[in-house]
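Re: weekly structure request thread

Next one in the queue (664 aa):
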Amino acid sequence: MTDSFFTIRLFLDWHDSVQWFSFGLLGALLVLATLQFVRSRRTAAGLRWFGGKSLGTSIGVGAVLLGLIPIVALVVLMTERSAYMRHDRMETRIEEMATAVAHSVERFVDKHVSGMTSAASSINASGDFSATSIQESLLLYHEIYGDFLTMLGTDAKGDIIAASSRLDGVLAPFDQLSGLSVADREYFKAPMTNGFPFVSQAFRGRGFGADPIVAISASLREQGGTRVGIVEGSLNLSAFDEIDREHPHIDGANLIILDNDDEVIYASPEAKLVFLEDLSGDALVISAEGLRQGVAFDYDDQSLDRNRNHMAAYATTALGWRVFVRVPTDPIAQQMLGDYKVGLLLLSVTAAISLLMASALTRRFSTALGQVNDAIDGLSVDGSDTSVRLPQDMPTEFEPVFAHMQDRAARLRGAYKRLSNSIETGEKLRKELTQAIALKDVEIAERTAELEKANEELSSQSKRDPLTKIANRREFEAFENRIWNLGAREKMPVAVVLIDIDHFKAYNDTLGHQAGDTCLKLVAKALEGSANRPLDLVARYGGEEFVAVLGGAAVADALIVAENMRHAVLDLGMVHPKTDEGLVSVSIGAASVVPTHDEEATSLVKAADDALYRAKASGRNCVVFRREDDFVIYDPDEHSLESTNIIKMLAGDRHRKTKGPPRG
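Done, posted below.
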């Protein structure tokens, strides 16, 4: 099959009608069989339509029709189903890929928004807005967030007073831009106007070079609230290459990220698109209009330098960017055509076998009839010479049988006796066979029970993390969705607690991976022991991260459990040579919400993840939650929070209000 639009489209349209062809074959066979049945009821000669008066020919033709047509219909239908499933699997895979990439892009941008917010908060807290102070903060945060090409700080008029750059691959101050103004840039005006962090549309930079960037900025303000400038980071869009490489490109699939103006922010090299290319009039964007995200669709691309037919799906990020995943239809059509070729080969083999079997059956039947005519001396089992007339329309093969019936009747007496003996022998054999079958049934039942037990063990293992023996991420997501739906139905709060082992990479590098595995096991056991109600689940989220779902838990409840978890890990007393306390500790982010059916459970995980980021930025070994617009480090002695009745009744003994070592 070529890359021709007409060829692919014609094949796909024909493919849609294949199942009706199969049903048509079966329908035609049903009509023919019905007509034969009706005629046989009237004249006892229904099969004459297949072969005149010859019973052998009639049976042979009938065997071919009855054996071949259903097989043809079945093979064609199964081939169509196989091809359809290929198409359907591809739809599912690109839908999942679009959603996964959109989530990765969203987390990537959110991470850097948090970084700029933290940088601004650090400068605001110091109260020193001099160029030297801002320059030091920029270099510190630029080291942490290496995907920023440049970072800068301005005064209230928009004049640049400090800047840092990675354009040459080395982080260093960038003094050449001091005094230049960015007052006309939206990333300056927006945070200076409303005070909120700002993420721009994609554009090419100026002054630092013409690299494609997205600007992320946050305002600097004095204690009285007066805004005295901004800090800004220019996010390197080539960093999306890493996100692109993290997801396998199935059958030539390529990734396209568009901003709110349908301009290209990023595209896989295979897509042959350029930065900021306007796709508002492209067939891809037009075909997606009116379709909800996460649903695959086909569209025809008339561009001469691209495949003309594609399958695509998209997902939208919180910024309104759309992540498209598209794959050319031609490879899928090639695979589907391969299925039909295999099906055609099977049909050819089946037809040949059917013809051979029908021919052998007809020959065997005719031979058998001749042998019966020679062997039978009479019709009556007891040998009586009852007069028999030849019925009208009787097949020609039976005419000699009736001619010899009277002469051969006497010879049947001995046959009758032998038949009686054979029946007795057969009955004995039947009993023996019945006993053997009964024994076999017992053996089959035992094997079935063993297989069911093994299947139950395998199902249990698929839900557990092989190292820590607690629930894995897949089980966590399923449990979280159930608790979320229960909370939405019962108006009950649900909390998520995200836990990260502090400086775990340094622990592994210093003490070895075997010690790291032991550390993960002990921490998992300690965390699981701190959340053990029926509505709680502790799971390994990935690497050194753990997560807990707490059904019926408000923020206060989640903080109690989180603080207990932090102390439980410290109480293990595992030595960590790379921390200030000298012990293994954890950073925890907690969040709680009353679910609704309009929201997704992932929003709660993201809220806890934001709190975890703040816990790490605040020095680790602490519990952070969000109160109103601020992130707060939880201290049982300072924060008076009321717990829900459910947690008071069910969680009593796990509320330990101990102080433990100081938190960083």
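Residues 473-654 form a domain with the Alpha-Beta Plaits fold (CATH 3.30.70.270). The longest strand covers residues 212-221.
Next request, please.
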